[in-house]
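ok, trying the design again with the full structure, not the truncated one.
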């Protein structure tokens, strides 16, 4: 990011070419798979979509890098491609990983299905309890993976301490920043080595594309790029075009989502039918203190429990009229879901309860609608639960 520009300006202008190709202010889609080599070009100069080196891809990478304040960023075909490619580029057979104990289901599933096959071991720790991390470290520990805001209880770990712990012990710090987005939290500035995203969520922002990205320090990004070239999870230029378009409005969208989530969480916290509200922007949230120091905003995700259990939760989902009912998150439209039936359905009851995912938990992904309309909608829905 240019130091003299605020994030809002960067979000619009990062990576843009002036003048653009043929004078176009909007960077075009280059779908081509074949490019003539220039005199003296070597293998490293080949422009080919799987090698993430075609003009539309390079344009998008410049935009992503500037938004993350990174030397380099690379787009991937999904958030999972970003996570798996990053882990495969950092970990060797025999290595050990420390990871947060509440991970996105796909990430947790990847580790439980594949770690052993790749010869990795891992230990899960509470990212909010730095006093427990040293006991998890082994001589083969190579990396520490956390999420900036967890799903669905929206916990914020001791992220500055994670980066510090990794620096002290020579570990690679990796963070999944999907829930916070770079509008609210910029991990590289906070000392992380690699930042991954599901761009399917806030970065794309319109629930109409699947993509991911990895941003980070130069030497590690070289490994990530090499791994991605072989593993094949590069991003198609058509989808990349939609992602670049979404990024231009990232800042206004996420700020509106922050505002809506805070307004809705505050309303819900005072409502007699609501038993619990989880939102890091509320002073009652256990992580509010350090989250306020780390983040510029608390994100668009919140969760709640009602007096009346799972049945009341289901009635709430059916009675709200503005939010659609469905998993996923981060789009301009508000969404409601019961994680027990969607994101956490694959877990056993024991695993869910350990993660605080009770049957009656409702998760809300706030969109950019009017906060007054959203509050009025939840108010009328809570009348009938
Ligand atoms: C959705 C999500 C992912 C996976 O992203 P895909 O784009 O679906 O592959 C990873 N991490 C988090 C936190 C997510 O919400």
């Amino acid at each position: 990011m240019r130091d003299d520009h605020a994030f809002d300006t960067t979000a619009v202008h990062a990576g843009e070419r002036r003048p653009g190709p043929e004078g176009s202010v909007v960077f075009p889609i280059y779908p081509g798979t074949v490019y003539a080599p220039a005199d003296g070009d070597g293998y490293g100069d080949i422009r080919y979509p799987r090698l993430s080196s075609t003009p539309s891809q390079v344009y998008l990478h410049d935009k992503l890098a500037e938004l993350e304040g990174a030397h380099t960023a690379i787009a991937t075909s999904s958030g999972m491609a970003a996570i798996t490619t990053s882990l495969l580029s950092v970990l060797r057979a025999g290595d050990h990983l420390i990871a947060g104990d509440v991970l996105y289901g796909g990430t947790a599933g990847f580790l439980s299905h594949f770690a052993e096959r790749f010869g990795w071991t891992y230990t899960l720790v509470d990212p909010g309890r730095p006093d427990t991390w040293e006991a998890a470290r082994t001589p083969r520990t190579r990396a520490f993976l956390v999420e900036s805001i967890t799903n669905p209880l929206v916990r914020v770990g001791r992220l500055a301490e994670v980066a510090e712990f990794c620096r002290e012990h020579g570990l690679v710090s990796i963070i999944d920043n999907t829930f916070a987005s770079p509008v609210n939290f910029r991990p590289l500035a906070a000392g992380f080595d690699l930042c991954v995203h599901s761009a399917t969520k806030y970065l794309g922002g319109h629930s109409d594309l699947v993509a991911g990205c990895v941003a980070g320090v130069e030497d590690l990004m070289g490994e990530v790029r090499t791994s991605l070239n072989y593993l094949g999870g590069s991003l198609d230029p058509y989808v990349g075009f939609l992602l670049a378009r979404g990024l231009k409005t990232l800042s206004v969208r996420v700020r509106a989502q922050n505002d809506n989530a805070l307004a809705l969480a505050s309303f819900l916290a005072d409502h007699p039918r609501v038993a619990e509200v989880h939102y890091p922007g509320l002073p009652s949230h256990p992580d509010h203190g350090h989250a306020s120091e780390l983040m510029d905003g608390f994100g668009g995700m919140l969760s709640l429990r009602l007096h009346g259990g799972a049945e009341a939760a289901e009635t709430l989902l059916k009675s709200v009229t503005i939010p659609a009912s469905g998993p996923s998150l981060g789009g301009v439209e508000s969404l409601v879901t019961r994680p027990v039936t969607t994101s956490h359905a694959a877990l056993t009851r024991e695993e869910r309860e350990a993660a605080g995912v009770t049957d009656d938990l409702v998760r809300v992904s706030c969109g950019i609608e009017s906060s007054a309309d959203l509050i009025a909608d939840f108010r009328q829905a809570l009348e009938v639960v």
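Keeping the full-length input from now on. The chain has 14 helices and twelve strands.
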